[in-house]
Amino acid sequence: MVPPKRSPEEARQRRAELVVHARRIVERDGAAALTMRALAAEAGCAVGLPYKLFTDRRDLVNELMRDEFRRVRGAFDELIERAGTGTVGGNLTWFAELLLDSPALALGHEVDEDHELGERSQAEFQESGLAAAFDTAMTRYLAAEKRAGRVAPEVDEEAFGFVIVGAIHNLLVSGDVYPRPTRPQLRRLLTAVADRLAPPTTEEQPR
Hints:
Layout lengths: L7 H22 L6 H8 L5 H5 L3 H25 L6 H13 L2 H4 L1 H6 L1 H14 L1 H18 L9 H18 L8 H15 L10
């Protein structure tokens, strides 16, 4: 008996599910580990299913990059919504680690080496609005924390946003060229920055 053909909506849903599994593979094992066979094993489906839903591995990578751009763009908005919750240092660390752990970063070299994939990925990047959001999200977050009383009123949020984002961007693009801090070191550094932005305590205020 021939199985019923998937509706377009069912196909989109199944593709989205496979993209989630693809992200997990890249995050855990690296970009080179992402194959159609590995994806099928991760998803617990027939080996042929990824080939039915994606034209080829390039199509899969492009879909993963597109989905990741949307996810990161949403994270920028979430960073601002986190103002007044948790700690400022914790929120800065969450933001930095989300970017550094992104599969888009792991797949970046492959995308750069593939002209067609690179053009498609660049178009998706521009459409996502990530570039503009990356420049403004940190400034808006620090401004929100200032309104919440957790960043001192005299702090120039635009200047500090520029410096923090610049440091994170350097880690994103430099790879092994620049010594990357361990996660505990990154947390300590960003917590130290947050401490310097905080309003003075009663004990610290001049008499």
